[in-house]
């Protein structure tokens, strides 16, 4: 293996932890900071702000999640002799990779409902979603996002724990 590739492989754990930390930190901020603050502003403001929040967070969260997942799985496959540590990294990485289909198949329909309604109202059309439905949809989204937050924080914690055990591991490839 080339020196550059070997150097990258030797730092997959750190890359995974950084990606996971950014993802989990952003998710946690959205869950405990941004969403409750938007709820305090009122339903209309929260509803109309959502597409802006989503647009900015989606790209970075995708990059952080994929980076964390792939790097953690790759690091886990390099661990020889300790099935606990190998499995810890592979499970934590797989959890981050699994957030992608969770987002696409479970969260996107809710996201798209909010985003599409906002597009329609910007075009001057009246919203087809009642105030009660808006509140329910935003609460549903917050619950779905909470699941993603808990999962990412737990996986990030597992990776940090894995890093603390790093000096005792035998790495291969």
TrEMBL record:
InterPro entries: Anthrone_oxy (IPR013901). Signal peptide: none annotated. The chain crosses the membrane at residues 12-32, 57-76, 88-108. The keyword Membrane applies. The keyword Transmembrane helix applies. Keywords: Membrane, Transmembrane, Transmembrane helix. This is DUF1772-domain-containing protein. It comes from Adineta steineri.
């Amino acid at each position: 293996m080339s020196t550059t590739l070997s150097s990258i492989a030797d730092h997959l754990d750190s890359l995974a932890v950084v990606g996971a930390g950014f993802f989990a930190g952003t998710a946690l901020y959205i869950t405990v900071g941004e969403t409750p603050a938007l709820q305090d502003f009122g339903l209309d403001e929260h509803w109309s702000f959502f597409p802006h929040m989503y647009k900015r967070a989606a790209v970075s969260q995708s990059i952080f999640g994929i980076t964390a997942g792939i790097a953690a799985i790759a690091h886990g496959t390099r661990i020889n002799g300790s099935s606990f540590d190998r499995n810890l990294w592979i499970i934590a990485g797989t959890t981050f990779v699994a957030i992608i289909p969770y987002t696409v198949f479970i969260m996107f329909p809710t996201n798209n409902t909010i985003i599409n309604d906002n597009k329609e109202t910007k075009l001057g059309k009246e919203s087809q979603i009642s105030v009660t439905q808006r509140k329910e949809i935003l609460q549903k989204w917050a619950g779905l996002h909470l699941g993603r937050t808990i999962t990412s924080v737990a996986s990030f914690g597992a990776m940090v724990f894995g890093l603390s055990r790093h000096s005792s591991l035998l790495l291969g490839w």
